[in-house]
User: What shape does this take?
Amino acid sequence: MNDEILKELKIVVEKAVRPVRATMARKRQMREELLTHLTAIFDEEVGNLGDEPAALIQAKLRFGDPRELTSQLQQSVSKRGWMAYLVEKYNYQSAQTVRHLFATSLLWACLMTVAMMLTGLSISLLRGRPHDLGMFLHVSLVTGVAVPTLMFLWLFLSERIARALYGREADRSLPKVLLFCLASLAILPAFAFLSYFAGSFDLVASLAHLRFACYFAPTMPVILLLFARVVAEETHYKQHWASLEIE
Assistant: This one.
């Protein structure tokens, strides 16, 4: 099987999978299963006909109308999968620019803060200790701001490292990778100090947390480099399938 035949098989599969509203992971699974099935049909037809172009035509006929298969694939997506798709779609689109990534982090900060406040209020009322509500609100606000900020920095640096290492030739730059890795060394110590100080206003204890976090700071560049590779592979995979002309 040459590359052109494989591309034609992928186009048939993509016609069925692309319109499906599901997460990228679920659609990857669909593509792999359908491509394996279609390839097996093609190989069988090659054995019967001894001619690849003719076998390709016959394999497409046996595979059926991709539009009908799209409906079946969509029905296989559960309600939970549908909700995951909506969340993933928003986050993926928002992560395309720094402005949108910041907006996503801000949204998650608001959602986390409100959720933790409601949880704290419920616990205070159930325990009959309404005076604890102030403490719960304080902790909720700190956590609601700190965690999304950490998420923003993580996604921003991993995306920039992936682009500098595995992106287009014009975007690749080892000095940029080094710069981003050095910047990541400050994330854990800063997060440990600021989050603890904002929650307790205890400078001495916050500095102790900063010193402790410094021991683990060197792990951040390593983890980011590994995560950046995953980001690059996922981006390449998505771009490859999106480049197939299915019209």
Summary: The chain has a mean pLDDT of 80. DSSP finds eleven helices and no strands in the chain. The first helix runs from residue 3 to 17.
